Amino acid sequence: MIRPCRPADLDTMYAIINDAARAYKGVIPSDCRHEPYMPRDELLEQIRQGVAFWGYEQDGALMGVMGLQDVRDVTLIRHAYVRTVNRSQGIGSRLLAFLRTRATHPILIGAWAAAEWAIRFYEKHGFTLVSTQEKDRLLPAYWRISRRQVETSVVLVESGESGGPSTSRQSSMRR
Fold first, then answer.
1. All domains of the chain in start order, with CATH
2. Positions of E strands within 115-158
3. How far apart are CA 19 and CA 65, in angstroms?
4. Spatial distance between the Cα atoms of 105 and 172, rounded to a whole number of angstroms
5. What is the pTM of this model?
6. DSSP alpha helices (H): ranges in 4-128?
7. Residues forming a β-bridge with 62
8. What does the alpha-carbon distance between residue 34 and residue 156 come to, in Å, rounded to a whole number?
9. Which end of the chain is more exposed for a tag (fewer CB within 10 A), N or C?
10. H/E element, 82
11. Distance set, CA 122 to CA 39, 54, 131, 157, 170 (Å)
């Protein structure tokens, strides 16, 4: 079942995010990765900034989380993580499909450029990479991230063929 995450889920969300983020070790630039990957205060700040987390729960336990955040004229998919032991079970796909139905604007997704598995996941679900020039414009406009993270990240948008929202603005964002 997919449900909104509650304040009582904070410790579990923190554990899921930091467990899943171990996949980044040795992949993303070392100056962009720290332990824990997302400190508890940063998770709380993301929630304060409007990231609404949803969780995939089975047998009373959260197995994955994914956030949704409206920023002006777009909806961002944020912080998509599935427990390491629960990967490849369709949990991320279910969360993404659910959140797509809740998006109120064209969807943007930011990902680490070196996290090829994440990019493939989103491409499999109908998202396409934007050009480097467009990525460099979009990341500072919609995310609060460091210049270094902008340099080492990509942005994906829903492709018109995926059945998602297709606007002239979104078409201009595609590569």
1. 2-173 (3.40.630.30)
2. 127-129, 153-158
3. 12
4. 15
5. 0.87
6. 10-20, 40-48, 91-102, 116-124
7. 57
8. 25
9. N
10. strand 74-82
11. 25, 18, 16, 9, 16
**Mean pLDDT of the chain, nearest integer:** 89
Closest CA to 141 of 131, 155, 129, 127: 155
User: Residue 172: pLDDT band by 50, 70, 90 thresholds?
Assistant: very low
Q: Which two tokens stand for residue 129?
A: 């990479």
Residue-wise pLDDT for 44-101, tens only, equals 999 999 999 999 999 999 999 999 999 999 999 999 999 999 999 999 999 999 999 9
Residue 106 C-beta-side C-alpha neighbours within 13 Å: 22
**DSSP for residue 130:** P
Helix (H) or strand (E) holding 4: strand 2-4
Cis peptide before 36 (omega within 30 of 0): yes
Report the alpha-carbon distance of residue 145 to residue 152 in Å, rounded.
Answer: 11
Six-digit token string for 76:
């961002």
pLDDT > 90 in the chain, percent: 79
Cβ distance 158 to 76 under 8 Å?
A: no
